[in-house]
Amino acid sequence: MSKSHHAEKATGIGDPQCFKGEAGPPKFKVGDKVRIKDLPDIFYTRCQMYTRGTPATVAEIVYESPAAEDEAWDNTEQVEWFYSLVFKQRDLWPEYPDAYTNDTVETELSERWLEPA
Amino acid sequence: MAEKHKPAPMVDEVSEFEILELAVRELAIEKGLFSADDHRRWSEYMETVGPLPAARLVAKAWLDPEFKKLAVSDGVKASLEVGIDWINDMPSNFGTPSDYCNLRVLEDTPKLKHVVVCTLCSCYPRPILGQSPEWYRTPNYRRRIVRWPRQVLAEFGLQLPEDVEVRVEDSNQKSRFIVLPMRPEGTDGWTEEQLTEIVTRDCLIGVAMPHPDRKADDMRPVHPAVNPVKHP
């Protein structure tokens, strides 16, 4: 029985570590302002609806991996950079209380979801 | 006569997810992806994993600034020092218990408090924390913490001042997260053992802060029933 790409590629290395060096240079750098694209997601996504169309700041460039949207179907050719993004709560939820304007949400998305803001 | 002494039927609540898991598991066994024995060994292994290694990692980081730097920059490497090898541990050898291997340690500061959630499902750093608590997997927690974090934290008994930034970490991809909370006052001169004891699982998820008088294995209060059953 053939093993999944995880077992073939990641044994003894780790996932996402096993995709290191496959994504080319990252398009964004730490501190960049980006906006989350509202791409179609008929089948599978790990991009939360609440982030769509919202501005965010790149906090960290975390690792390279195929996007979950592809990997769910065992498509692993296109390896992308993943970014840790920080959102202001006020940008996500307009009714968020004024007293807590510093509050944030952090989450990770792959490059396909980001455009410069 | 025999009819009369039949025991009352057992009522077992089985959720749709449990039925789904059972169906997928049986199909996988039939298909030969893994054996029933593999499944049993895996389940037994998972039951032995708990939050203690992560508590020790935090205690070490409190005591050793160099180790703290390592923990924050490379959680997977730091885990090795508390006996957790994310890459090579059994049984999978590629991310223990089905998890991905990128551990990020989120450092709290006097002006920043982290709390972890997975709004999409229930991603959790199982190799180092064990199985997630039931509430962590509920839609209630997952929907509300990201939108009303202060209210939800208050329900856990954690009230934070206005000038502290509450950062909700929504674990949605291949990173897993634990919180490195602030070392509480009143713990000067404590050993690594003592410090490890006060870092509870909830502190590591971020819904509680460590306190010198509260240990992970403390007895929990037992409240009397409001309407106790009266036996004849």
CATH class of chain A: Mainly Beta
* Oligomer kind: heterodimer
Write the element-wise H/E pattern of chain B from the N-terminal end onward: HHHHHEEHHHHEEHH
Question: Helical stretch count of chain B?
Answer: 11
- Strand arrangement, major sheet of chain B: 1-4
CATH architecture of the domain at 48-205 in chain B: Alpha-Beta Complex
Beta strand % of chain A: 25-35%
Low-confidence stretches of chain B: none
- Through-space gap between termini of chain B: 25 Å
What best-fitting shape of chain B do the alpha-carbon axes yield? globular
**Total number of distinct structural domains of chain A:** 1
Topology overview:
The complex is a heterodimer of chains A (117) and B (232).
Chain A: H1 5-10, E1 33-36, E2 55-66, H2 68-71, E3 79-88, H3 89-92, E4 104-110, E5 114-116
Antiparallel strand pairs in A: 1-2, 1-5, 2-3, 3-4
Chain B: H1 16-31, H2 36-47, H3 52-63, H4 65-73, H5 75-80, E1 102-107, E2 112-117, H6 126-129, H7 134-137, H8 139-144, H9 149-155, E3 165-170, E4 175-180, H10 192-198, H11 201-205
Parallel strand pairs in B: 1-4, 2-3
Helix pairs in contact in B: 3-4, 3-10
